[in-house]
Amino acid sequence: MTQDLVSALFGDPFAVVNTTGLVAFALVGSAKAIREEFDLFGVVVVGLATAFVGGVTRDLLVNRVPLALQSPVEIGLGLLGVGLAVVLSLRLRAPDEHTLIVVSDAVGLGAFATTGAIVASDVGTSAFGVVAIATVNAVGGGAFADILLDRSPFILFDDFYASCAVLGGCSYWLVAGAGVIDGGAALACATVTVAVRLVAVTRDWQVPTVGDLRNTDE
Amino acid sequence: MTQDLVSALFGDPFAVVNTTGLVAFALVGSAKAIREEFDLFGVVVVGLATAFVGGVTRDLLVNRVPLALQSPVEIGLGLLGVGLAVVLSLRLRAPDEHTLIVVSDAVGLGAFATTGAIVASDVGTSAFGVVAIATVNAVGGGAFADILLDRSPFILFDDFYASCAVLGGCSYWLVAGAGVIDGGAALACATVTVAVRLVAVTRDWQVPTVGDLRNTDE
Amino acid sequence: MTQDLVSALFGDPFAVVNTTGLVAFALVGSAKAIREEFDLFGVVVVGLATAFVGGVTRDLLVNRVPLALQSPVEIGLGLLGVGLAVVLSLRLRAPDEHTLIVVSDAVGLGAFATTGAIVASDVGTSAFGVVAIATVNAVGGGAFADILLDRSPFILFDDFYASCAVLGGCSYWLVAGAGVIDGGAALACATVTVAVRLVAVTRDWQVPTVGDLRNTDE
């Protein structure tokens, strides 16, 4: 039983990044809800929503009963992330800005973009569908959490975040098209998403606005 | 025909609570939209959304065409609730705070949590799935209405409301597991949800925030 | 290939209105995001959401994998609308208020309401289902875009907009019930929606609020 659990959580490289991502996403979401002074029920909901809404949306789009409702292990990981956020928030002001969490969040972004791309190409969507579902899987949870917190999804006007998943989804599609090796597309998607995200955080990249373009024009 | 309708609305105890709940939920939602000075179209949409979005989300999660789109009777009950809200709002300032409506709303919460739990266990989700779908079915409409009204869902930071449905969902799962009698799980879920809600309203229970925990710590 | 594309876009009257609608909806949505100073990623997301979320919601409600994820041509039209909004916003303050765009938007409203009504009656929903899905298909994208922009959907308190789709959906159902000629219901739905919308814009129609009714009462 314990052995099964260990193998489900860390049995292969993909399980490791997925496990890391679920905990990190739940932690980041709950920490935001704690700062908004939501009650504990709200903190749990926002944390689990951040971790799972991306995958649930993906499953709805491809017409499957969401996996998150069927797997107790994944929910346990989400609750672990929520618990960590609560404990850390009693000591730190913003546990979600700690370097370890920022890196884990980038790993989660890569894991979720990859799962999305794999599921989308399994059901035979267009290239746009692969990129769109990879992106929704990766950032849907965070965007939905922001709507629950009554603000615009941060991914739409701030930071270089969702764009990493878009680039990861495009890599998946290009490598899958080239058809080199089994698993090559998934590896490319995860690597590109995580690498671009880490560079974007380090160098503080921003996506330009139309206002920026207008100023360049002058 | 009239007889069929009467039996659909009040034929068994469950039909009675479901009927009460639909009217009460639609009334509560419309009253909120009226206070925000939405136009009549908006009032109808927010009222119907409060009554039906929980059930529609449940149906989407288990991959069914939503029942609400197939049953004219249920829509009629929703519109009745909206009509009552409009008529009462011409006379009262907050018809949704009347004791009769608060009690009906608690009855609706119990009815919808129970429907959610039944549907979830029919499709074979995990224990978490049963509790999650019961809760979404019960509070999804109210939460979505708050998003339409451009505020955070009240269930996330205020009041002891969604927690009643969580406890109801847990009861369902425990009693179903014990497997005593047919219908026992449904009865337990509805009773626990309604009873806890009524106690919570009377005693003004609140779920604590992490800030409360921090203060206790000191 | 070019010939196929031309025929997909303009091959029959319905394709022409659908093409016009997709471009207009994407343009209107992106222009709103540009005014809120979203970054370019956010502008693309809000534009595509405005054009496609109505149809995706329709497909989810009737349990289909969304067409938008399978058709590269439709996405191309959405991106064309986004591109137009960006280019026009460098010159004009509010390209979405230009008469040409307002008329195209009305045409899109009619096209999307009609598609929704056709799909709903194909899967055999109730009369309410036909009207509800026609309306969601027509206005769901704009409403979702407003939620992304952190405001209440404008259709709920302002303007005579969604009501046009409701009237169109009712016409569809009435004409389909009468069963006169093939395609008559679709034609009625599209014509009624577009005509009512153009009259509503010209005469500045508003749906009354309960406050208005209360004042009339006195």
From TrEMBL, chains A, B, C:
Keywords (A to Z) from UniProt: Cell membrane, Membrane, Transmembrane, Transmembrane helix
Question: Which Pfam families does UniProt cross-reference here?
Answer: Gly_transporter
Listed GO CC annotations: plasma membrane
Q: What is its main location?
A: membrane
> Does the keyword Hydrolase feature in the UniProt annotation?
no
Q: Where in the cell is it found?
A: Cell membrane
The record gives the membrane topology as: Multi-pass membrane protein
List, for all copies, the residue spans of the domain called Glycine transporter.
16-88, 103-175
What lineage, starting at the top, does this entry show?
A: Archaea, Methanobacteriati, Methanobacteriota, Stenosarchaea group, Halobacteria
Q: Where are the transmembrane segments?
A: 6-28, 40-57, 69-88, 100-120, 126-149, 156-175, 181-200
The scientific name of the source species is Haloplanus rallus
Record has Thylakoid as a keyword: no
Q: What is this protein called?
A: Trimeric intracellular cation channel family protein
